[in-house]
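2024-03-11 09:14:02 INFO worker-7 job=invfold-0412 stage=load source=structure_tokens
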């Protein structure tokens, strides 16, 4: 059987870290994922998906991500049955995260929720660094002549 999910979206709220009675860290959070198309004259719709991360993935998401952070998750879909406060049977559908990664550039405050900028885009208006005056210019080989190259005779035996 195959149960694989790859999803990218923005966190709706800060992730919530909990620890089980056996001492295992678990984080729950919800992401908003835009749909691929929008009907003409309507706004694009979004799906709000619940995600669960365990152990080191839970620590990672709580440390480096916050509300509004762009996030990429791959994992699997899992369902569970429970009873609500009124005794009604309910089914929860969640994505269990296997890998969590950064998806966007650092924000204006200098961090991507506190972490590195994996997947960040290069600055469009970046200027090349000026070359110090004490370094000689590198020669241009594009101005060379084809007579500068010699044909190597490889008809003999190999030299090794």
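2024-03-11 09:14:09 INFO worker-7 stage=emit residues=160
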């Amino acid at each position: 059987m195959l149960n694989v999910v790859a999803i990218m979206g923005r966190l709706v709220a800060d992730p919530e870290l909990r620890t089980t009675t056996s001492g295992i860290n678990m984080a729950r959070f919800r992401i908003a994922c835009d749909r691929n198309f929008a009907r003409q004259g309507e706004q694009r719709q979004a799906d709000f998906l619940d995600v669960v991360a365990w152990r080191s993935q839970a620590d990672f998401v709580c440390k480096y991500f916050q509300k509004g952070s762009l996030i990429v998750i791959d994992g699997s879909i899992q369902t569970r049955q429970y009873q609500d406060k009124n005794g009604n049977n309910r089914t929860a559908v969640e994505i269990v995260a296997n890998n969590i990664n950064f998806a966007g550039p650092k924000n204006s405050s200098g961090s991507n929720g506190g972490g590195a900028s994996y997947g960040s885009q290069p600055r469009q208006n970046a200027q090349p660094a000026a070359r110090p005056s004490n370094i000689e210019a590198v020669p241009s080989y594009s101005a060379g002549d084809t007579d500068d190259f010699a044909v190597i005779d490889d008809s003999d035996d190999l030299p090794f």
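2024-03-11 09:14:09 INFO worker-7 stage=report msg="The helical segments are 55-64."
2024-03-11 09:14:10 INFO worker-7 job finished
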